[in-house]
Write a structure and sequence with these properties.
mainly beta; globular; 4% helix; five-stranded antiparallel sheet; four-stranded antiparallel sheet
Length: 405
């Protein structure tokens, strides 16, 4: 509502004012001006605020002081042990009858060798060993070198020799004897069981063959790598197989023994030998049926009376067999035999005998019952052992002591 207007002391309403104005002849246009104003709704203005353009701020430049690298430390000198020197090939002597010293039958026999090995591949290497000491000769027994194990090492289990080679097994390792040391390699899977028998080692050309009770390993790189095969296992009526020879081409010859299931006590036990052969590449054992022209010699049961008996020396070649001597009793006079490509010898009745096919001839007395034949060397002489000494018998030199440990 409009507020009233005061005119000349009187309060006039709008209607009265309009009537008065009309009385004085005021036009409609004038009246229109006197109408109260119309309140218009004014919209809220839109204020556009323009944001200032962003200011580009350059990234800070960080200066990092990097110290120059330190010069490399001088290399640490590591002492690398020199590789063992290989044995220089010794020339096999032409004549060996004078090597060593003549055997004195009255000399006391002391000590005991753990073993003696003689090359059977045409070489002239001989080795003899005790628990921790090894002597070997590469020239047929003229000169000898010594190799010892440390006191902390286990004893020598076995030693094998070939042409200018000596290989040993000790403390679950195989070693090739060099000029100034032993080049060892671990046996690994071939290691013998704790408190079990030591491994047996064989040599043929570059091949080293180690034989345990349950596994055979062959290596042609000094024992760094191995190829494995399984021997023939023992049964209630047969023995386990054992290796007799290793050839340079990797051929291995083995043998096992069998007997009847019921031996009984009425007669001598009957044993049969079975020859086997295989190669490193094959690994499976087969019956060895290769023809052989060489004679082999064995002791077999001669007479049997239940609690004892006698033996006989038998010569065999293919289907030929002959008894050289019978009635042998080891409890009264020890007997022994050794043979190879160059000949064969036997000891019985305190005498050394030379064997030729199915016959024998007496060649020399044996001074001591403890003399044991070892092998026949490339010269056709008998190599034997007694006490701590290695002996040789030859027709020209008789019994001689080659070396004593």
């Amino acid at each position: 509502m409009l507020d009233p207007i005061v005119f000349r002391g009187r309060r006039l309403s709008i209607t009265g004012i309009i009537a008065a104005i009309g009385a004085f002849g005021v036009g409609a246009g004038t009246l229109a001006l006197l109408r109260p104003p119309v309140e218009l709704e004014v919209p809220t203005p839109i204020v556009i605020v323009q944001a200032p353009a962003p200011i580009a701020v350059p990234a800070p430049i960080v200066h990092v002081a990097v110290a120059p690298p330190a010069p490399p430390a001088p290399p640490v000198a590591v002492a690398v042990p020199a590789a063992p020197r290989p044995i220089a090939r010794a020339r096999c002597a032409d004549h060996v009858a004078t090597f060593g010293t003549p055997l004195d039958p009255a000399a006391a026999i002391t000590g005991d060798l753990r073993g003696v090995a003689v090359a059977d591949d045409g070489g002239c290497t001989i080795a003899a060993w005790t628990t921790h000491e090894l002597r070997d000769s590469r020239d047929g027994g003229q000169t000898w070198r010594t190799t010892t194990l440390d006191a902390s090492d286990a004893a020598f289990d076995d030693v094998a020799v070939g042409d200018n080679r000596v290989v040993v097994v000790a403390d679950a390792r195989v070693g090739v004897v060099t000029d100034d040391a032993i080049a060892w390699q671990p046996l690994g899977r071939l290691a013998p069981a704790a408190n079990g028998p030591g491994d047996r080692v064989h040599v043929g050309g570059a091949w080293i063959v180690v034989e345990s009770d349950t596994l055979v390993g062959a290596s042609d790189d000094g024992g760094a790598t191995w190829r494995y095969l399984v021997p023939v296992a023992a049964t209630p009526t047969s023995s386990a197989s054992w290796i007799r020879e290793v050839h340079a081409d990797g051929t291995m010859l083995a043998r096992y023994q069998s007997w009847p299931e019921d031996i009984g006590m009425s007669g001598p036990p009957s044993y049969t030998l079975h020859d086997l052969a295989t190669t490193v590449d094959d690994g499976a054992w087969h019956a060895d049926r290769r023809p052989s022209t060489a004679w082999s010699y064995t002791f077999e049961t001669d007479q049997f009376w239940g609690c004892g008996g006698t033996d006989k020396l038998v010569a065999t070649r293919r289907d030929d067999q002959a008894t050289l001597v019978g009635g042998l009793r080891g409890d009264t006079a020890p007997f022994d035999v050794a043979f190879g490509p160059a000949g064969a010898f036997a000891i019985h009745h305190d005498t050394l005998w030379q064997l030729r096919g199915p016959s024998e001839r007496e060649v020399a007395p044996v001074a001591d019952a403890r003399v044991k034949l070892v092998a026949v060397d490339r010269y056709g002489t008998a190599i034997a052992r007694v006490g701590s000494s290695v002996l040789r018998w030859s027709a020209a030199g008789g019994w001689r002591v080659l070396v004593s440990l």
